[in-house]
């Protein structure tokens, strides 16, 4: 775990500081708090120097820096081969820095999803993957992790090009976390066992944990590499085969990952990637021969996926959806840590995180001090080309996201929240937005109720522990939460009272493969990561047989 020290709060990957500690993926815990046209080192702890120049948030962002890696793969990946879509159709992948087409990518329709499902079905029913001893599957998964590690810079560059993620944060932070998930689940391949059961008669009873079959994985664009690993690694470990759809905004890294997995020895048809729009995802969710679907994305689409699953073959579903996570700063909190952690909690990844700390509750005794310091920190945030060393914030992922965030900023102003800093676009090209802070935010304001998914901090004053618990829970969502306090009694009361799937205490954004991740309420259901995720990808079968003269039951 990244340790927190006074004055250097939760900054495993912060790029604002002159030096950044990053973690080995084999230790695999890290802190991400650091630093359409749609609709149409592995070897120990490393250190990296980041010299950055503060860029005024209003400064025009320069012409896009060329990606250090060319785009190699843009076709569908089915049965371990790159293929065109049946129709030959492609869709444009837009660079959010320039708003221009970076590359055309194959667009999968129903017949392409069918092809991928057939390949996955054949691999499941006849292929070696589910039949292989767990230790052999583990060997292949560890080789996949090795290859991902070798290509982590390239994978990160693809995500940066696709959706504007800060390149250094991707390769130094998210990539090791994602690779760590492959290694962690490699360890589960020969351990996901059933139980021998005591019985109430002369019977021998036991459970078998079997792979579920063909798994559909539908991904969002905000953390493409990590969220792919979160779904693919446990599904593979349990012996399943997969049809995966990355988001239209971020198709490229998934294609390279599938190619590398094949190179590592993953048999034909085990991991298939179909790129396309939402209709491609819907073909997966409603497919009669897909046995399970795992989804991360908006609550609205999560509902549609559940309906499609119910109306087709009643496939089980797990959903990881939106959030409106409280970040609670009590009067006794370490203010250096609170200011920096709250900053990262909402501004990391341009605010495009399901667990973004998007409601900053601050105790009245430190409210004014907090506002002053939060404003100063936001105004130092380096906004610019995400490939440029030292930059902390790139563009929003696409035009739709940019417009959505700007409309929430307008709503905040219209509803009477006080704009403390930011609130404008940066430059005139690319989807860049100033780090924005509103104070005097009230619970009934849109910016306090709805997921903005952007760099917009909403600061809310509170007086008592009971009040902040009640107001934190007064949300349709329940994904993450953070508590900053030195008082262990307050910490214990609040952590147990919050309706959230993950609560960070005096830190923010620590992820470790063993810790389950998922939501309460409209943030979805089911848990990913850790041993809990195995249940998403296994059938449990009871076997009961008579036994003669058993010496015990
Ligand atoms: N929980 C989280 O981490 C995320 C939350 N969100 C929230 O959702 C908002 C909208 O983002 P958006 O990208 O539109 O998220 P979506 O929920 O639309 O997209 C997530 C994934 O679902 C696919 N999809 C879209 N429609 C369907 C459908 N009807 N059936 C099956 N799959 C479908 C998308 O495909 P495609 O993109 O190709 O159309 C994408 O692969 C964000 O502003 C944010 O508030 C978004 C992303 C992640
Ligand atoms: C370092 C990347 C962390 C991703 C954390 C999980 C995010 C989920 C989501 O936004 O859906």
Automatic annotation (TrEMBL):
Amino acid composition bias (Low complexity), ranges on this chain: 26-36
InterPro entries on file: Ald_DH/histidinol_DH, Ald_DH_C, Ald_DH_CS_CYS, Ald_DH_CS_GLU, Ald_DH_N, Aldehyde_DH_dom
GO cellular component labels: mitochondrion
Top-level taxon: Eukaryota
Name of one Pfam family that matches: Aldedh
Domain Aldehyde dehydrogenase span(s) in chain numbering: 82-543
Example of a GO MF term: aldehyde dehydrogenase (NAD+) activity
Annotated stretches, region: Disordered: 25-45
Keyword set, alphabetical order: NAD, Oxidoreductase
GO BP of this protein: carboxylic acid metabolic process
UniProt-annotated catalytic positions: 320
Stated family: Belongs to the aldehyde dehydrogenase family.
Protein name: Aldehyde dehydrogenase domain-containing protein
Native species: Physcomitrium patens
């Amino acid at each position: 775990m990244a340790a927190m020290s006074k004055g250097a709060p939760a900054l495993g990957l912060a790029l604002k500081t002159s030096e950044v500690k990053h973690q080995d993926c084999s230790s695999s815990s890290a802190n991400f708090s650091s630093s359409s046209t749609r609709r149409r080192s592995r070897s120990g702890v490393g250190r990296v120097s980041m010299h950055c120049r503060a860029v005024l948030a209003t400064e025009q962002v320069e012409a896009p820096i060329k990606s250090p890696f060319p785009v190699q793969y843009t076709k569908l990946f089915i049965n371990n081969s790159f293929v065109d879509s049946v129709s030959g159709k492609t869709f444009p992948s837009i660079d959010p820095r320039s708003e221009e087409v970076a590359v055309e990518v194959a667009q999968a329709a129903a017949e392409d999803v069918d092809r991928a499902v057939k390949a996955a079905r054949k691999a499941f029913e006849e292929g070696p993957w589910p039949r292989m001893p767990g230790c052999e599957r583990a060997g292949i998964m560890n080789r996949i992790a090795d290859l991902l590690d070798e290509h982590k810079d390239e994978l990160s560059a693809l995500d940066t090009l696709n959706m504007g993620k800060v390149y250094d944060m991707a390769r130094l932070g998210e990539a090791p976390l994602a690779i760590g998930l492959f290694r962690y689940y490699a360890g589960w391949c020969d351990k996901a066992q059933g139980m021998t059961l005591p019985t109430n008669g002369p019977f021998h009873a036991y459970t078998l944990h079997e792979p579920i079959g063909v798994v559909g994985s539908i991904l969002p664009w905000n953390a493409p590499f990590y969220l792919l690993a979160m779904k693919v690694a446990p599904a593979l470990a349990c012996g399943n085969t997969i049809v995966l759809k990355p988001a239209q905004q971020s198709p490229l890294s998934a294609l390279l990952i599938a190619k590398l997995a094949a190179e590592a020895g993953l048999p034909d048809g085990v991991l298939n990637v179909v790129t396309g729009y939402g209709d491609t995802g819907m073909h997966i969710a409603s497919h009669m021969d897909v046995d399970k679907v795992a989804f991360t994305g908006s609550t609205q689409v999560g509902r549609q996926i559940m309906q499609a699953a119910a109306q087709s073959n009643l496939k089980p579903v797990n959903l990881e959806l939106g959030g409106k996570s409280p970040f609670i700063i009590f009067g006794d909190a370490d203010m250096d840590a609170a200011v920096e952690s709250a900053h990262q909690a909402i501004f990391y990844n341009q605010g495009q995180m399901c667990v973004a700390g998007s409601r900053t509750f601050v105790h009245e005794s430190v409210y004014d001090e907090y506002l002053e310091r939060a404003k100063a920190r936001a105004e130092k945030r380096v906004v610019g080309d995400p490939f440029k060393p030292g930059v902390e914030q790139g563009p929003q992922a696409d035009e739709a996201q940019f417009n959505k965030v700007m409309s929430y900023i307008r709503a905040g102003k219209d509803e009477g929240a006080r704009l403390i800093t930011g609130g404008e676009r940066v430059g005139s090209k690319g989807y860049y937005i100033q780090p924005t802070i509103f104070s005097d935010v009230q619970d009934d304001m849109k910016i306090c109720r709805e997921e903005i998914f952007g760099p917009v901090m909403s600061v809310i004053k509170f007086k008592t522990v009971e009040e902040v618990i009640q107001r934190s829970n007064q949300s349709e969502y329940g994904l993450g939460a953070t508590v900053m306090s030195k008082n262990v009694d307050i910490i214990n009361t609040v952590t147990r009272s919050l309706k959230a799937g993950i609560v960070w205490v005096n830190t923010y954004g620590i992820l470790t493969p063993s810790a389950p991740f998922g939501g309460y309420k409209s943030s979805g259901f089911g848990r990913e990561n850790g041993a809990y995720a195995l249940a998403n990808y296994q059938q449990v079968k009871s076997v009961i047989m008579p036994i003669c003269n058993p010496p015990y039951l």
